[in-house]
Amino acid sequence: MLNSILFYSLDKAIRSYRRLAQANIDRAGLDITVDQWLVLQVVLEHDDLTQQEIAERVFKDQASVARMLALLVKRGLLLGIPLPNDGRRTRLRVSEAGHQILDAVQPIILANRAVALAGLAENDLTVLRQLLERIAQNCAPVAN
Amino acid sequence: MLNSILFYSLDKAIRSYRRLAQANIDRAGLDITVDQWLVLQVVLEHDDLTQQEIAERVFKDQASVARMLALLVKRGLLLGIPLPNDGRRTRLRVSEAGHQILDAVQPIILANRAVALAGLAENDLTVLRQLLERIAQNCAPVAN
DNA sequence: GCAAGATGTATGATATATCATAGAAATTGC
DNA sequence: GCAATTTCTATGATATATCATACATCTTGC
């Protein structure tokens, strides 16, 4: 039975949450995806990362990040300024429009989390996080 | 910090597992994706479901399932036989090639699960599943 | 300095995710 | 029995996921 498979529950939980999050962002009239929001947030916090570094932080791959960044720049949420010391890269900066959308999304994300985690105690979350981290570690390819 | 966000851990765990699973399937020389495998497995168990019903079982949407079924038929893993009592539908059946690939993938999936869940006690899994189900339920849209 | 290797980015190909909608076929209400 | 509604499937548009690879640029070794 599918229901007895742990990964089914995992998949279901994350997909449910993502749908909820996206629905609430859409409902607020904000034109951004959850994934774009995440990348934008990472750039806000660190504007000197390579695509690969961003990819590791958001757990996507470099190709996905490259396309998302191009889209965010195209939409005017990010600015790409050529880096003088490395001709391959551009320094990314969140634009004014980007800041506005991040500010608008922030409370929605917090509300979503509250809804998603309703009824879970602080201790539950700690246990959950530990188990999930263990699974991720178990699955990680041996680096070397 | 991203690391303190539960959904980050969730996303990371499921993505790690999916990558491991796909890598091992690929390594075995089997030409099927994890998602295709899941759909094929569902059809094997119930050959009279609508796309919508399959979609609910695998927690995808109908459009995704439609495309995956078309691809599975095209690849010869599924057979589509028109249903006499409903001109809109076709009865899906797993082909001989489909059975072969399911049989070949089965042990790999089991091995993957063992690797992913190494070090987790039976009790951990129960707790984990309950918490994940609760989250999914919290996020589910009110049906009516 | 320069050749070899490493790093950073972009993109093609294919698969999946989602919404919206079109079109066909079945069901319902009356 | 037929019109209105519902159900089922397919598909367009756009976004993301992944691998592979092309290409430019940087770094290292010597």
UniProtKB/TrEMBL annotation, chains A, B:
Keywords: DNA-binding, Transcription, Transcription regulation. It holds the Pfam family MarR_2. PANTHER family: TRANSCRIPTIONAL REGULATOR SLYA, TRANSCRIPTIONAL REGULATOR, MARR FAMILY. InterPro entries: HTH_MarR-typ, MarR/SlyA-like, Tscrpt_reg_MarR-type_CS, WH-like_DNA-bd_sf, WH_DNA-bd_sf. The lineage of its organism: Bacteria, Pseudomonadati, Bacteroidota, Cytophagia, Cytophagales. Signal peptide: none annotated. Residues 3-137 form the HTH marR-type domain. This is MarR family transcriptional regulator. Transmembrane segments: none annotated.
